[in-house]
Specification:
Length: about 400
């Protein structure tokens, strides 16, 4: 793998400066107490050209030598039942499961439980945060999106992409989900191999891939940024929406995503333990990312229009209203400059819904017990996931 010199080349760009002095970056610093500098840049920058070689070898040995469905069934068997002692199993597969079934010394299942409970008790705010801050905010980073464009994600459609993200997120954030052989563990391993499959396919078929500027496809540094989205950015979104978060829940949330990242093959030194570390890591990564390009705008509008395409809501006026509410949340959570770059439509009274939600959350947190909120949140999130899966698994839906 050819090595390139990586520099924080966008650190003097207007989009970078605005984000960290006026925008959400400034808010993240205030939120986390981060101390920003480029002192550790070189420790992280080499991961722009680093990939999950363990996952890649499994894909070469299993998926590229069999039908995809047959390979998937074989891997599912290993995930759910373990590797047979006497069977002939490729060394790459043994390496994968040796790593993912070894419980790290730092793992604390009680902390993971606290993190899962935060995700569940935040109910639909969790889903708003994922969609209107984490996902659409990620589209503002042009190079990060290139694997999506190379794998023709726009043709798949936003409903399908959102369904897959929701399926992954819900299944790794339930009770005991990440224990070996459980469903969250299974989703982490499958997602890891999907990333490897996509990376190897891009390198083989996408001749215009610009490794020097974009890094390796789905590289470890970009993976770090993605999972900071699920941890730090998600937490910040809940805070902005008026949710009260305990110190134990916050610590547990980062611990949960650190372990998910570990299962996904992200190097441990890239996985932050808290919001201060996460903000400092994120600062370095954003310095190599240009702002939105035309692909970013297409991805953002595809996600915005998902509400109109999705038949979960029966009537057109319901879908239009849902799209309006998501647009309101996007402006509130992402801020004006990012929304303008992504060409998010400006709508009247756009702060009304998010601010009302903040007030309701403050009251709700004081009146309803934590246990009740966890139970209701889990139920409501599972209902949304079921609706999405019913739609996307229908062969007539495109």
């Amino acid at each position: 793998m050819e090595a390139y010199d990586v520099q924080p080349r966008f650190k003097d760009s207007p989009h970078f400066k605005d984000f960290w002095t006026n925008g959400n970056g400034k808010q993240l610093v205030d939120f986390s107490g981060a101390e920003l500098s480029f002192e550790d840049f070189e420790k992280f920058s080499r991961y722009f050209y680093h990939v999950d070689e363990i996952g890649d070898e499994v894909v070469k040995d299993i998926y590229f030598k069999k039908k995809y469905s047959e390979a998937s069934r074989e891997i599912e068997g290993y995930i759910r039942n373990g590797i047979p002692e006497n069977g002939e199993v490729p060394k790459s597969v043994k390496n994968l499961f040796t790593q993912t079934q070894k419980i790290p010394d730092w793992l604390d299942y009680n902390l993971i439980k606290s993190g899962a409970e935060l995700c569940m008790r935040s109910n639909l705010d969790s889903l708003i945060s994922l969609r209107d801050y984490c996902l659409i905010g990620g589209y503002d980073y042009a190079y990060l999106n290139k694997p999506l464009i190379a794998t023709e994600a726009l043709k798949k459609g936003a409903v399908k992409r959102l369904s897959e993200t929701l399926d992954f997120w819900v299944n790794v954030t339930r009770y005991d989900a990440l224990e070996v052989h459980k469903k969250g563990y299974e989703f982490a391993i499958k997602t890891r191999l999907i990333h490897s499959y996509a990376r190897l396919s891009i390198k083989k078929h996408y001749k215009n891939w610009d490794t020097k500027n974009w890094g390796e496809p789905i590289n470890s540094w970009d993976m770090m940024a993605t999972y900071i989205g699920f941890s730090l950015v998600f937490l910040h979104s809940l805070y902005k929406l008026g949710n009260t978060i305990s110190e134990e829940e916050e610590k547990g949330h980062f611990h949960l995503w650190k372990y998910v990242g570990y299962l996904l093959g992200i190097p441990e030194k890239l996985l932050p333990n808290n919001k201060k570390q996460a903000t400092e890591y994120f600062y370095l990564w954003t310095s190599i990312q240009p702002s939105s390009d035309k692909d970013s705008v297409l991805l953002a509008h595809s996600l915005l229009n998902e509400s109109l395409e999705n038949p979960i809501l029966k009537f057109k006026f319901q879908r239009k209203n849902l799209r309006y509410l998501h647009i309101c949340c996007t402006w509130f959570l992402l801020g004006d400059e990012v929304c303008k770059r992504l060409q998010i439509p400006d709508v009247p009274l756009k702060n009304g819904f998010p601010i009302t939600k903040r007030i309701i959350n403050k009251v709700y947190d004081t009146l309803v017990s934590r246990k009740t909120r966890i139970k209701k949140g889990n139920k409501d999130q599972m209902k949304v996931l079921k609706d999405y899966l019913n739609i996307t698994q229908n062969s007539n839906f495109h």
